[in-house]
Amino acid sequence: MLQLDAEALYADLRQGVRRLLPEGALLVGVWSGGAWLVERLQRDLGLAGSAGVISSRMHRDDFDRRGLAAGSDSTVLPVSIDERHIVLVDDVLNTGRTIRAVVNELFDFGRPASVKLAVLVDRGGRELPIEAAYAAARIALPAAQRLALARAEDGRFSFAVEESA
Questions:
Q1: At a CB cut-off of 8 Å and minimum separation 6, what does 48 contact?
Q2: Residue 111 near residue 83 (C-beta atoms within 8 A)
Q3: pLDDT at position 71 over 70
Q4: Contact at 8 Å (CB) between 116 and 89?
Q5: Neighbouring-strand partners of residue 135
Q6: pLDDT tens digits for 113-164?
Q7: Contact 27, 52 (CB under 8 A)
Q8: 52-65 burial, b if ≥16 CB within 10 A, otherwise e?
């Protein structure tokens, strides 16, 4: 069975994001796992201000089947993104469809100078030409399985492999 140390991967992600961040860049986490990651990255990297959170729900290409996801947050960007460098963070990159949706959402709020993607795990399975500038790990996982990031009350991360419904 696949075992991933989410805390060790987070340490790698933190170093990768540090290298991707130009001065004045905004960290933006994809709801929900990416939002957890940027909350901790913001603190651990000693960045001033607040990180952003972005939702894919309004731009998903399966919106007609899924509708609004229960409990999903809305996009919250603490500053204008016009001409700002954005580092988008997500927990797991798979098909690329969520990232396509959040980039569309991001451009609803303005025109960033650049957008780079950092992920905790790239599991392959791409259906769109989306690639992370930094991935802490690259793994192969069968399409019938899902990699889910969890956050404990103390803020520590862990992964679970779940069978897709």
A1: none
A2: yes
A3: no
A4: no
A5: 119
A6: 999 999 999 999 999 999 999 999 999 998 899 999 999 999 999 999 898 7
A7: yes
A8: bbbbbbebbeeeee
**C-alpha dist (Å) from residue 92 to 60, 71, 111, 133, 163:** 16, 19, 25, 13, 15
| pTM flag (> 0.85) | yes
Residue given tokens 């030409």 in the structure block: 129
Contact residues for 151 (Cβ-Cβ < 8 A; gap 6+): 36, 157
Give the span between the Cα atoms of 45 and 41, in whole angstroms.
6
Can you give the C-alpha Rg of the chain in angstroms? 15
Collapsing DSSP states into helix, strand and coil, what is residue 29?
strand
DSSP category for residue 8: H
H runs (alpha helix) in 45-149: 63-66, 97-108
Give the residue carrying structure tokens 């731009």. 59
Q: In the predicted model, is pLDDT for residue 66 greater than 70?
A: no
How does pLDDT run across 95-118, given as a tens digit for each residue? 999 999 999 999 999 999 999 999
